Please model this.
Amino acid sequence: MDFRDTPEEAAFREEVRGFIATEGPKARAGREDAESFYGGSKEWTKALASRNWIAPAWPKEVGGAGMSVMEQFVFNWELAEARLPRPGGIGIGFAGPTLIVHGTEEQKKKYLPEMLAGEVTWCQGYSEPGAGSDLAAIQTRAVRDGDDYVVNGQKIWTSGGHNAKWMILLARTDPDAPKHRGITYFIADMKAPGVTVRPLINAAYTHEFNEVFFEDVRIPKQNIIGEENRGWYLAQTTLSFERSNIGGAVGARQTVEDLIKFAHENKNGGQSTLGHNDAVRSELVERYIEAGVAQMMSFKIVSIQAKEGVAPGHEASVAKLYGTELNQRIQRTGMKVLGLYGQLDAKTAGPTPPMKGRVKYMYLRSTANTIEGGTSEIQRNIIATRGLGLPRA
Model:
């Protein structure tokens, strides 16, 4: 790994820093709440859109920035260091790339511009109550009826579904085919008759997830992306995204630094927590070192992409597994550092709880980290079979 910027990368980093210095304060408006979820203010979205930085990895010909792997890495790194959000969500991250590769010209003209403008929210209709890690086991049905498909079924853990205009939906169109086949990729209107969205409140008492029910929902055939019964393969589509998760590694380090600052400033009998509690001091040192390891993993992954031109395989699973379990350890340490203060937030302690109530929220929210986006068990299987070459059980 080469930790030095090339002259071009150094110049781009300075460009991003200058942009952040000018536009960053607008992004922080309304984001002091620890429970903020998607994306930043409208002003921040507009500022990014003015540079074509909403979708850094997308080709320039469809409105993206066409950034290289290293440019994406630098961009994400600087935004993370400044604690600024990357808007886009499911639309920019999943639906847009799939449309770019497999969509019709009409679909691209209709959906891509509103994604790039930050005008609408998309959600993802993949997981079902009986099909999470085994996604190919989905049972939601789509039956052809003239120029429409009639959809019946249920999706779950639908992030942002309560605010979404569109959903990328996987539904089974051939129940007799092997389970990885017979699945079709649709664009579903979340306001169509027969769509019901019900909130799922998580352990941190925030509304991110939903369950979505389809009852005789009609989807026109022109809302199919790609070919009928080929949806499973489309669902694997990505562009050349920078997948190092440098933002997560930087965020982990920043959280530990915040805890160290609190421990220094929190006096007990005239002495700081770090001054009289060896156990807390040692645990914070361990977490800080581990956050550094997570950052090295990010550098390793981006080096593979930049030098070898291939997407990371099991390396990404290593980083995801390590990073999510590290976050849980950091939040447990945070609760120890704050003690009883860790139970406070803006709802229970007024406008100024310690660390703005983030520790309580992040501790409760971290429970889901090792489940969402592929469970730790799935990641360990990938590492074992694809990384270590171990036989399947």
Notes: The beta strands are 122-125, 141-145, 148-155, 166-172, 183-189, 195-201, 207-220, 267-268, 271-272.
